[in-house]
Amino acid sequence: xxxxxxxxxxxxxxxxxxxxxxxxxxxxxxxxxxxxxxxxxxxxxxxxxxxxxxxxxxxxxxxxxxxxxxxxxxxxxxxxxxxxxxxxxxxxxxxxxxxxxxxxxxxxxxxxxxxxxxxxxxxxxxxxxxxxxxxxxxxxxxxxxxxxxxxxxxxxxxxxxxxxxxxxxxxxxxxxxxxxxxxxxxxxxxxxxxxxxxxxxxxxxxxxxxxxxxxxxxxxxxxxxxxxxxxxxxxxxxxxxxxxxxxxxxxxxxxxxxxxxxxxxxxxxxxxxxxxxxxxxxxxxxxxxxxxxxxxxxxxxxxxxxxxxxxxxxxxxxxxxxxxxxxxxxxxxxxxxxxxxx
Length: 342
Prior knowledge:
NAD(P)-bd_dom_sf, 26% strand, six-stranded parallel sheet, oxidoreductase activity, acting on the CH-CH group of donors, NAD or NADP as acceptor, 25% helix, seven-stranded mixed sheet
């Protein structure tokens, strides 16, 4: 019998924050017969289990002729992002029935892949929840792990500042910095997130909405490494409080994603303090660190040496709400959409 193949459709390009039901909409009009759906040679049918909602998705909600590192979403088509699913039917020697796969998924219940695309098979020897593979053991975890190894040059006793420290990337950076013997200052936008950052090892954790960032950094700095998830005034404060020869790891600038951004007025500190600034996209580091990541990080999570927190939204219908929460910072942890059980 045919079943519903629900989809999340990109409906319109937002001018500010994406609006659930206007920017993206849930469409349940399509049916799929799982028994008779055509599978091409080398292809396979996947049932979506979990999807990731991440800050970078806002940048894909743009006019198609605007260039960027990630392709734009196309109006009228399903959005896509990182996901985990299970193979239901296969004509592929690599992706066998019953295998769990991770990679780029259209936001829909069932997907016929014509080839391997960017998917990998997950062995999950540690028996982690499958949702972790779109978060701590997926792209956000890779972002923290790979860029910290590549750019931090961390030395024991140095002072690290992490903005967005309660998120899936920032929270891992805090923990990696502590493993390397650093003092960690971390900021987030709620008192609940401050308590979480303290619980994972931050030496100084503060709410940037109720504390002055520069005052905190002047008191507890200077800073040797800044992991930047937010840009804007926080980046300006970090430049003011930076030590000579500081390293700035530029991961994201979510403070400007929905407002068009703002100029940084004190960038001259990069020269005056001999600051090294590293911008990066995690996909460009995967070839170097992917094997090491999957060897080390799932084991660290399973052993409890890396603490993980996630917030789960239920069903494809909730994707728009999850996207908005991530952009506004009202989510409490890594945003994951639970699409289906196995």
